[in-house]
Amino acid sequence: MAGAPTVSLPELRSLLASGRARLFDVRSREEAAAGTIPGALNIPVSELESALQMEPAAFQALYSAEKPKLEDEHLIFFCQMGKRGLQAMQLARSLGYTGARNYAGAYREWLEKKG
């Protein structure tokens, strides 16, 4: 069963350490280029709906990463402050990604407490 729609920093650290999370930075390319959480795939929220509906090969070609599966458990979306990450999580869930979650603390919290 998928976890709660939001994920805390301690839970995120645990999921990342165990390799059980896929992280998606939904900020703009410029924001992500200035710094992101290690291992995150940048898909701006404006592209997310079309990205999640692509054929796996097209997704792989465009983002150089495997397309998430509908049944993946920990698909964690984040932005700078939390709003776009929430939008992204809601969008992914509406498309059937039941394991979509939002890291509500966002990159701001990550920088303050981890970086």
Structural class: alpha/beta
Helical segment count:
6
What is the name of the CATH superfamily?
A: Rhodanese-like domain
Rounded radius of gyration (Å):
13 Å
CATH topology: Oxidized Rhodanese, domain 1
Strand order of the largest sheet: 1-5-4-2-3
- From N to C, what is the helix and strand string? EHEHEHHEHEH
Q: What percent of residues adopt helix (DSSP H or I)?
A: 40-55%
Low-confidence stretches: none
Total tally of structural domains: 1
How far do the termini sit from each other?
31 Å
Please state the overall shape, judged from the principal axes of the Cα atoms.
globular
Domain Rhodanese: 17-115
InterPro entries: Rhodanese-like_dom, Rhodanese-like_dom_sf, TSTD1_mml
Protein name: Thiosulfate sulfurtransferase like domain containing 1
GO molecular function: thiosulfate-thiol sulfurtransferase activity
